[in-house]
Amino acid sequence: MTDETAEAQAAPDRENTLLLTLKDGVVVIRLRPDLAPKHVEQIKALARAHFYDSTPFHRVIEGFMAQGGDPTGTGTGGSQMPNIPAEFTPPARARFTRGVCGMARSAEPNSANSQFFIMFAPYPSLDGQYTIWGQVVSGMEFVDKIKRGAGGSGQVREPDRLITLRVAADVPA
Fold first, then answer.
1. Residue 124 carries which DSSP code?
2. pTM above 0.85, yes or no
3. Which sign does the torsion angle of CA 58, 13, 47, 102 carry?
4. Are 138 and 3 in contact, with CB atoms under 8 Å apart?
5. What's the whole-number average pLDDT of the chain?
6. b/e string for 47-72 if b means 16 or more Cβ within 10 A?
7. In whole angstroms, what is the distance from residue 115 CA to residue 95 CA?
8. Burial 11-34, CB ≥16 within 10 A → b, else e
């Protein structure tokens, strides 16, 4: 049995669980359709199309977050799917803390598409300003090993790549 299969079997709601395979291991992400149903559906559709496979973590800032989901690795790319209207959560319901998964966007609030980030630490200034779509429930130690970028932008030279991203329901149990 592979690590991915073992993680899929352990997931309580396999349709709302993602398995993110990194160079160091499998990260299990619990999806939050209760907070961001449109974002969750788009991420699952892209995962099922294998869109995220081999995409780089192009922007990684120590003490903040790791950002990926752009096939160009420039921070300007996305998928062929339409941008998603913002689904910001009031801070009283959910906050950007360690392991929270959010959607990257431009200055335009309704510009999220495929890029996402995983928080290394709390970052209150994002609360209520960005969409929260998931939470790492195991494997955060593997996220912590993603290669960091340099400077304030966090751009990564020769970045680590997301190996695969799968919906647990699609992985044989």
1. G
2. yes
3. negative
4. no
5. 94
6. beeebbeebbbbbbbeebbbbbbbbe
7. 19
8. beebebbbbbbbeebbbbbbbbbe
- Residue ranges of alpha helices (H) inside 11-94 are 37-48
Q: What's the CA gap between 114 and 132, in Å, rounded?
A: 13
**Helix intervals (H) in 49-121:** none
User: What type of residue is 22?
Assistant: L
Element (H, E) at 18: strand 17-22
Q: Which residues neighbour 110 within 8 Å (Cβ) at sequence distance 6 or greater?
A: 83, 84, 85, 86
One-letter amino acid identity for 73?
A: G
| Distance (Å, whole) CA 7 – CA 64 | 26
pLDDT at position 6 over 70: no
Question: E strands along 23-145, which residues?
Answer: 25-31, 59-61, 65-68, 100-103, 116-119, 132-138
Q: Given this model, what pLDDT does residue 7 score?
A: 52
Q: What is the pLDDT of residues 86-123, one digit of tens each?
A: 999 999 999 999 999 999 999 999 999 999 999 999 99
